[in-house]
From TrEMBL:
<protein>
    <submittedName>
        <fullName>Transmembrane amino acid transporter protein-domain-containing protein</fullName>
    </submittedName>
</protein>
<feature type="transmembrane region" description="Helical">
    <location>
        <begin position="246"/>
        <end position="262"/>
    </location>
</feature>
<dbReference type="InterPro" id="IPR013057">
    <property type="entry name" value="AA_transpt_TM"/>
</dbReference>
<feature type="transmembrane region" description="Helical">
    <location>
        <begin position="348"/>
        <end position="367"/>
    </location>
</feature>
<dbReference type="GO" id="GO:0005774">
    <property type="term" value="C:vacuolar membrane"/>
</dbReference>
<comment type="similarity">
    <text>Belongs to the amino acid/polyamine transporter 2 family.</text>
</comment>
<feature type="region of interest" description="Disordered">
    <location>
        <begin position="95"/>
        <end position="122"/>
    </location>
</feature>
<keyword id="KW-1133">Transmembrane helix</keyword>
<feature type="compositionally biased region" description="Gly residues">
    <location>
        <begin position="25"/>
        <end position="36"/>
    </location>
</feature>
<feature type="transmembrane region" description="Helical">
    <location>
        <begin position="490"/>
        <end position="514"/>
    </location>
</feature>
<feature type="transmembrane region" description="Helical">
    <location>
        <begin position="159"/>
        <end position="180"/>
    </location>
</feature>
<dbReference type="Pfam" id="PF01490">
    <property type="entry name" value="Aa_trans"/>
</dbReference>
<keyword id="KW-0472">Membrane</keyword>
<feature type="transmembrane region" description="Helical">
    <location>
        <begin position="269"/>
        <end position="288"/>
    </location>
</feature>
<dbReference type="GO" id="GO:0015179">
    <property type="term" value="F:L-amino acid transmembrane transporter activity"/>
</dbReference>
<feature type="transmembrane region" description="Helical">
    <location>
        <begin position="205"/>
        <end position="226"/>
    </location>
</feature>
<feature type="compositionally biased region" description="Acidic residues">
    <location>
        <begin position="95"/>
        <end position="110"/>
    </location>
</feature>
Amino acid sequence: YQLPGAAITSEIYKWVDDQQQDAAGSGGPGSWGGAPLGRTRSKIPTASSLRLPGGFRRHFIRHQAQASGAPEPNIITRNFIDFLALYGHFAGDDFPDDGEEEEEEEEEAGETSPLLAPSTPSIPPGTASPGKVFFLLMKSFVGTGVLFLPRSFYNGGLAFSSIFLCSISYLCLYSMLLLVECRSHISGSFGDIGGKLYGPRMRKAVLSSIAISQVGFCCAYTIFVAKNLRDFLMLVSDCQWIVPEYILVFAQLLVYVPFALIRKIKHLSFLALIADVFIVGGIGYLYYYDITTLMVRGPAAIENFNTADFALFIGTAVFTFEGIGLVIPIRDSMKEPQLFPKVLSRTMILVTFIFCSVGALSYLTFGDKVETVVLLNLPSGSTAVELVQLFYTLAILFSVPLQMFPAIGILENSLFTPRSGKRDPKVKWTKNAFRLGICLLIAVIAYVGSSSLDRFVTLIGAIACIPLSFVYPALFHYKALARSAWSKRADIGIVVFGLCCMTFCTVTTVYSWLFGQQEPEFNRC
């Protein structure tokens, strides 16, 4: 023992040397008792993760995979309900549950706690199969917007709407693939990519567009619920209950406010499941009614190109296809991300077919009598119609809290300090008041926009969805990856197209709203 204090540590080094010699004889170099050193211990689960439903089961599956040398499963998308977790990573951004950090800090260290905990939680590699990703993408794209398309086909005309909708679908797909390509070379969320390429102002612009689009979706859904609920009450009461729309708009706050105060998105899982089931049932019945009616009565009088209102179709088409916020988290959940472009392309083909067929069939069925929400055209006196209208209305009512979650997360992160309200009641109630204000703002905007839902949807599509779908992805690709002259010209062309559509749709929609003929309130009685 020539070094000072060497006698104190000599036994430790001797023990390590003996273990390494034993391992060399049994498990080979770099292993410990036949198990690789990096896998001798599974990740220590936190108490908060074990408290979640299925927490012990998830830890057991991870532990078994590590022990056998198999890839660790990606728990985030193992089942239908866990699709909801993607909204906690909307556009690739992380919106942690309020108080999540304090929960981790409160967990006491035990004998098995690692001395050096990782600074950031480790994210397991994606393991979602192409089939599962296809299912997730379908749930991301098919929702309420499909019911606005029949009226949009009336605004644009059958031929123009069909051709333009397919063109918009291709451009949306191309732009999403540009964003995916950028994500493959630049780490981070949608906003982070813009911040790294163009600075913090671009990141704020992306997040602002996401927040505006999500708030706009909530407002459109609120109007949708009010119109359908009003019609449903007239149906079941034989025109005895005629409730003004504005009352039904603000009455929805009784549902939205409690759910807006929920900090953990996992508590909204049952709402997402119910909503998806009702939406599928409603679209299925609409197909059935349109096809049977066309077979009996034939098509109604239609136009192939509506010169007066075709601009309204453009914004609605982009509004319908806006699902770019979930592209990055779904792509990151794949076991083989290189297959994502192929899966996304096939999904968009099917989604485009659904959108075109619903829009065209309903327009052919109802002609110029088609309503902004096509469910209002279904005949009265049918129990099936009443159930479809009620369930679809409930589906959209349950979808609004889910759409609010990313918007609230973005706005709270930008307006409040990272402090949580778990320990500070003042911070907690300030955030509660802010969330209440967001709900009131949505109700007020919905009340203003309820007089012309199709124009409101077009305006949201023009202001928020067009930049997200076309402008930002092309700008990012132009600066980060475009090398050939053709690629640069394509990116510039998409940006110019997006800005022109955005300006044209916004100006024409505002002018039509202010000086055009207002849509009469639908009334069965």
